[in-house]
Amino acid sequence: MENSGKIERSAGILMHISSLPSPFGIGTFGKTAYEFVDFVAQARHRYWQVLPLGPTTYGDSPYQSYSAFAGNPYFVDLEMLTDDGILDRNIYEDIDWGSGDYVDYEKVYNNRFTVLHEAYKNYRQKLSESRVKLAAGLPEYKKFDNFNKTNAYWLDDYALFMALKWHFNQKSWQDWDEDIKFRTQKGMQKYKELLADEIGFWKFVQYEFDKQWKKLKEYANENNVDIIGDIPIYMGLDSSDVWADAGEFLLDENLTPVKVAGVPPDAFSELGQKWGNPLYDWNKMEANGFRWWRARMAHSAELYDVIRIDHFIGIVKYYTIPADMPDARQGSYEQGPGQKLLDVINEAIGDKKIIAEDLGVSLPEVDVILRENNYPSMKVLEFAFGGDRKNPHLPYNYSDNCVVYGGTHDNETLMGYFTEHNEWELGYAFDYLDTRDRARMVDNVFRAAYSSVACLAIFTVQDILKLGNEARMNMPSSFGNNWKWRMRAGSLNNDRLNEMRYLASVFGRES
Prior knowledge:
It comes from Lachnospira hominis. The protein is an alpha/beta fold.
């Protein structure tokens, strides 16, 4: 079944929610998110791309989440809870959330859940009062009740999982007591009763996330801005999905992975990348009609207009690494489900579109399956200037069904790339971009992308602001200093707006 949703010629901006300005130490779905939508719309761009929105685990990477379905509690805007009458402003106004330039995840973690618990206490009181007044409940109670019922297929397990995480002092589910680690009937009943109030709290947080995100997305769509979401191909081992659906993954009798996911040595790392994610049991998934994937993609289609599948290559052919190996050099490739899974994905998402992140190892099988499904591939201009004239990332080698980026969240910023590499490394870039002025090279990369035949051109906010590598979002294979960058309020001024509107206009990408 071919995906029919081809992307028309257009442009977009990549900005993760965490990078938005806000008073709460991290970006939220509040006022500045709406202002960013206004900027994208006024720049005559069609798309706002975000990174994965799931709740993050240790290390704060949006690509390692506790759930394939849940949203990040950090993004729930506290001022909107105040406007809804369930949170007193005094509770959060004097909290030290950290500086404005980078996310201090420790401060956010230590304070946010205390504040959200206060909101839940007040909300629960409102629900209690509504039940007294009307047996059927007031409209707000009905909305919350309907949300819980509609999303029970993932929400019940997720809320119990998070309540258990806090009960067991954040230990991985593999270190929980055996009755609940193995989800025995007695253990499940015991903890559902013991942690009933905390389970309710986690459901409330997801209700608020869903309500605020969908309101923001509706505003974007009304202003002719579509949302590109991003989903990691794999789940983290310490996630509600692996715990609740262990049979869908390649685990031994003790629920421990035998082989794990990653990628072989490449330009990013000579040791490769051992991600450590458990691998899917594709045979079992196929036998049940890819039930989990069908639900995941249908849920993603509710949240986004376009879905970028990270590490799309893994659906066609995936890299396996023995779990006891220290790095990724000893791995091997195995065949993935390919078109069988993509038929399910195409059906589940309806008229929504897919972007396939096919970076890394070039596999002919992937090229074929992209063409057969009409999925656009990805090109990155930072990968284009090594001197090979057949490099697929050079604009004159593009087909129109591709998405071109200056750089992604995993790359240096463009300004960092052009200022921190030496003249020998940049020799071909000087020639191709027709300048040796490193400041102008960033502008010329924009023009190379926007003028290309690619159906969609996307640049990060950091590159629009011409920031150096101090604004880099992530450095693969490193730990401790990633996912922290935040934009300063007022950075996207009229000069930036006019520059982006000009590019969209001149190169036929206006929305």
